[in-house]
Amino acid sequence: MRNIENTIPIYEAQTPPQELAERINLEIAKSKKRRKAQSGYAGFKIAGAMAACLAIFIILLNTNQGFAMAASRIPVVGSVARVFTFRSYEEKTADQELKVEIPEVVPQESAASGQVKDYTLKVNQLIQEKVDQFVEESKQRVQEYKEAFIATGGTEEEFKEHDIKSSVTYDVKLQQDNILSFVIMTSENWVSAYNQNFYFNMDLNTGKDITLDEVLGANYVQTANESILRQMKERTEQNPDYTYFTPEEGGFETIGPDTSFYINEKGNPVVVFAKYEVAPGFMGTQEFEIEKP
To answer: Region 139-151: what's the mean pLDDT?
Structure first.
């Protein structure tokens, strides 16, 4: 297996959190108020210089990993700049195109040691293991597919026409105070059966995973089950083509402690079922927001 760290990175980037943009907008608004108390031209120059500096900061944070890490030591915006970082790279061969984005969780300075530090290190190691495993298995699947294709009469040129693409990416669902919820998504455009998502719900204050019972309370199973069944009923009533597997067909019966979910911007858990898990494939991934009691 070719280690991911040994591949040539196409680019490295940081995503500026929403809190940073909001804080920058707030500072611009403040500068406009100050401008009214100053002479027009001088005030305009000050506000313009401030906006330019803030714009440069965003650009550097978004394009330079070293600057983003250094910014974590700057007062005021430090805790914002350090919440989330990622690396990206591409690999292209004659048989496959691979694109990978790897998230990395970085605790605030106050949590740089002890339980939270150990926790984030373990999470980052798990992320890397998941990515490494997918990349290795994806390459192996493509190779096996190619060998079978050639063995049954196909040619190298015909195989290239399949334009096989594999990817690893991520999506931050909630980044608020000490709560971080995100999902890592793996996909292969030629065989959806191997697509898989990994959900992470982290409390960066306690250094522990957030569980459904912590969000919904002691009766979380009943609360979630009732909400999911009600939403399933509503969806089938609104769309006659929709249908869900019955328990006898292997469909939904109940959630459990290992049920996949993320936390949305409202702070509600969203239970996620993979394609084919509770419904026919044409309905895709099924998500159900469970409102907190």
So the answer is: 95
